[in-house]
Amino acid sequence: MFKRTSPARTAAMAVALSTGLAATPALAHPGHLGDGLVAGLAHPFLGLDHLLAMLAVGLWAATRKAAQAWQAPAVFLACLALGGVLGLATGAIGALESVVAGSLVVLAALLVAAPFVGNRAGLALIGLFALAHGHAHGGEASGLVPAYFAGFLAASAVLHLIGWKVGCHLFASPLGRWAAGLGIGGAGLALAFG
After folding, report:
1. Is residue 6 a part of any domain in this protein?
2. pLDDT category of residue 132 using cuts at 50, 70 and 90
3. Distance CA 129, CA 152 (A)
4. Domains in the chain: how many in total?
5. Tens-place pLDDT, residues 23-38
6. Has residue 82 been placed in a domain?
7. End-to-end distance of the chain based on CA atoms, in angstroms?
8. How confident is the model over 158-165, as a mean pLDDT?
9. Residue scoring higher pLDDT (20 or 98)
10. Where is the signal peptide (predicted)?
11. Dihedral angle at the C-alpha atoms of 126, 127, 132, 135, nearest 10 degrees?
12. Does residue 172 sit in helix, strand or coil?
């Protein structure tokens, strides 16, 4: 399932990933760049909370058996869309920003504890946090909502794929999984309390 890499390469990738993830912005969830497809495509790459959550889901997928790897991204995207619809219907809920930031800490813990966490339990948590992420974005959406969410979901899927690909190489050693988990968790704590 995992391709073998040298310990030096694994350590270098782990340090690079954890250093990049530890950087914190001034705001956890900056506003959208507008509405429409381009804004939807851009936001997952520009909102640190969303970027890290999408990468974490892809990384989690890399900890699963090959036949199960697709499940976490599929659950996340479905629940993200459902949460977006709920957010459009109910409007923004301020407390969700804390849940979104806190989700990074839980997703990081899932990565660290991946060998001991069953697939169903992991998918349940992933789906729950996807609902929160989707609701937060749906509550803020305006303008060309269908185009925005089409771009948003497509970009999220790309980030899942990137996370999965990185995880397949990085997790050849437990050190890589720990570094990724600690980096994402540290960034989540900084966003939650920053």
Report:
1. no
2. very high
3. 16
4. 1
5. 333 333 444 456 788 9
6. yes
7. 38
8. 96
9. 98
10. 1-28
11. 140
12. coil
